[in-house]
């Protein structure tokens, strides 16, 4: 699992199941693990709220810390849950709430999320890591040029079999891999003529639904390492709330360059180039 080399003398203490919870956390995680996961979660929470792609940082971070690929995929969803929840609250406080517009896509997205989570649970750790690594580059390329649209939302654009198929497919992808689902949603929503801030507020709610539906599959399958997942979730929660504000004031240019460098490095490592 995570590195057990202590940075401080007390970081490698021996504990039992009867030991207080704090000492159990100290035993399984080093200070460096905690700092990296908090920072990664914060950055990913901001990036996910801006458009998407934050999991391109956090899943590789978990893998490089020693968490198996499929478990890293499941553990990351705990952070996504906190991030999307705080982002939704942030958008609502800033006057951008999309619940009334998101309802028509919830059923296909929810069904797809469960199917995707069940399917990805069949992959081995090595297979997941390589597939995820290969997905990272195209998702990154899409994230570099997110859609910029402006218009009102026509009600008819939310109905019809094509919309159902599209959002079912997005739900399957989100349930399986999650990384970049926000980008796919913004692209799909742009077909309805949304401006970016409104599209992002709706996207956050849809990703929240995907996460709520997929997370129990990973819990039942034992694909969550709770210690790093909860640390990551704290960073995600802060990043999600800050991301809502960054989106509204237009701070994407500060985040994207860091994302590019980190993702390219992580992708090469997961694919096996070094």
Your description of this structure?
The protein has 274 residues and is mainly alpha-helical. The protein has one domain. 72% of the residues lie in helices and 0% in strands. It has twelve helices and no strands. The chain has helices spanning 21-28, 31-50, 55-64, 69-93, 99-102, 106-120, 125-144, 161-176, 181-190, 196-220, 226-249, 252-271. The longest helix has 25 residues, at 69-93. It is globular, with a radius of gyration of 18 Å. Mean pLDDT is 76; it is low at 1-27 and 149-156.
Keywords:
mainly alpha, globular, single chain, 12 helices, 274 residues
Number of separate structural domains: 1
| N- and C-termini, Cα separation | 21 Å
Structural class: mainly alpha
SSE topology string: HHHHHHHHHHHH
Fraction in helix: over 70%
Number of helices: 12
Main β-sheet description: none
Which range does the strand content fall in?
under 5%
Q: Low-confidence runs (pLDDT<50, min 5 residues)?
A: 1-27, 149-156
Q: What does the radius of gyration come to? A: 18 Å
β-strand number = 0
Shape: globular
Q: If you average the pLDDT, what whole number results?
A: 76
